[in-house]
Amino acid sequence: MNSPLWRIRLLRIVCVLILVVLIYNLFEIQIIEGEEWAHMADNNRFRHLIELAPRGRIYSADGVELAASVPTYTVALADEQNKNRREQTIVQLAGFLDMEPDAIREKLAKHQRKFEPAVIATDVDFETILLLEEYKHLMPSLVIQVVPQRYYPEKDLLPHPLGRVNKIDRRGVEGLERRWDEYLQGVDGFSVVQVNVENRPVGEPVNSTPAEPGHNLHLTIDTKLQRVAQESLRRVLKKLRDEGKSDHAWAGAVLVMDPNTGRILAMVTEPSFDNNHRYDKAWWAENIPADMPDWAKKLTDRTYQYRRPVGSTFKMVTGMAGLEYGVVTAREKIYAGGRTRINNQPVNDYGNAVFGNVDMRRALAVSSNIYFATVGSRLGSEKIYEYIEKFGMSRTQKNAGFDDIAQDEQVSSLDYRLGRTWVGGHTVQISYGQLNEFTVMQMGNYVSMLANGGIHYKPYMVEKITDYRGETVEFFEPVVLDQQDFSPENLKVIREGMQQSAARSPFLKGLPFAVAGKTGSAEHDRPSRKNMERWRDTHSWWVGYAPYDNPEIAIVVFMEYAGAGSRSIEVARDIIDYYFGLEE
């Protein structure tokens, strides 16, 4: 056989075989599998969509929703390879959203995750969404998503403790929202959607994982009691301004606690605001009186972020220390003649009133500065500060152990000893509540310890955490931080003095049970609106508990620059009436 001819024939056979294979493959692709390959060609790109998880809800003790997640609309643009189509979409979308096209281009340029749509606008109104849906066929890369947004249904109820959420990263940045953010944050879901050559979604998602909502907080707050306390404080402050008793009575705070557990039942700061408009200048301009001074407009929570001198409400500390150390007895009488000097410090009782010889109970009832200055001078400052610490009011005990709310710099009491040369006159002044400063939270714990016999319960307002199915994730029991071994006889003397003090107030007449309480009128510098000069003014305080024989609630009322402490009792009476169902 001629070798060259054989090779040529073999080559022809191989070529024919290759041609047959190619024809068969082409037939299979074009005819047999043509529809499938065409579908894949049209859908060879994928769009990744993130499903944002709803933030956990916050409920009050009586089941009222205080923080919710409501659906809002977000407009985004997916990555578009066709430059002409992308530019056409940008111009059209800018018109619908009333934006400049360059603003949209800038957002697209900054967007790094190309496989995810770039958010162009958030919280878009429903009318605009309807228009976009109508013209969506002209903008293939347009993505409209329903996303959860934080909403506070009760508006100005408990806004300071609740805090707020950053709209961009949806993380809590203040208050409960920040402190419990790891629980409230849910787990985002995602889906992968096929898109055709025109960048339009086709069919169902090829892969998806649903979002998991965050856990829910359940508070100890009673919303009805909270509202009663808030409205009463607001009303009394306004009355003091309108009647000319105090032009500066704009701000204050109320705390109601269960002295037997540390549960916080109400926590009010005034002035308040709608938490949905926390930094909305237009809302503030419309809802806040124009003549309110700047110092009162602070968004500071006045229950735990604010300290002020507490006046005569402090006298039970001095009295207990004096009885426990034996520098004074319950029956010893000290002459209160209206005015005197102790440790070279001038001391006078309110209005230079002459009370004569008074014992501990009587001194608490009439609030004699002279009596407690005398007891304090016998004790000395170290023993007084020792009892400040016993009652959970020292600088090292941040707000008596309260930590349910995030605090960048926890406010503690002001220890007047620090950085000063101490003289006997300072001891005299701290004995009846001047110089040192405390928070409303610290005062609430202090009066609770008087009510329960010396047990320092940790103040708390988060009672349990549940998941979105309602299953309990964590439950918080009362925590005892400390317990003082006060003499029952000495404690009884202090309580009886508080009961006699409360009985003197016309606001507390007609109750079916006795109440223990003490007023405080604390002098303090007030900034002037002109030239930032400072003027001496008086804070109004009342601390107490009810009923006297079987305490169920401890109350602290603080009204800044509102004058005499007796003015705060009206708020306390409103709280007592509501809590015990005594309203007419």
Identify the notable features of this structure and list them briefly.
Beta-lactamase, Penicillin-binding protein 2a (Domain 2), single chain, 18 helices, 584 residues, 2 domains, 7-stranded mixed beta sheet, 5-stranded antiparallel beta sheet, alpha+beta
Q: Compute the number of structural domains.
A: 2
Largest sheet: 7 strands, mixed
The rounded distance between the terminal residues' Cα atoms is 127 Å
For the CA atoms, what is the radius of gyration?
Answer: 35 Å
Report the sheet-strand fraction.
15-25%
- Percentage of residues in helical conformation: 25-40%
CATH homologous superfamily annotation of the largest domain: DD-peptidase/beta-lactamase superfamily
Structural class: alpha+beta
Output the number of helix runs.
18
Kindly identify the CATH topology of the largest domain. Beta-lactamase
- CATH class group of the largest domain: Alpha Beta
Explain the overall architecture.
- The chain has 584 residues and is of the alpha+beta class.
- 34% of the residues lie in helices and 23% in strands.
- It folds into two domains: 47-219, Penicillin-binding protein 2a (Domain 2) (Alpha-Beta Complex), CATH 3.90.1310; 223-579, DD-peptidase/beta-lactamase superfamily (Beta-lactamase), CATH 3.40.710.
- The strands form seven sheets. Strands 2, 3, 4, 5, 8, 18 and 19 form a seven-stranded mixed sheet that branches.
- The longest helix is centred in the N-terminal third of the chain and has 30 residues, at 3-32.
- The chain is elongated and about 140 Å long.
- Mean pLDDT is 87; it is low at 39-44.
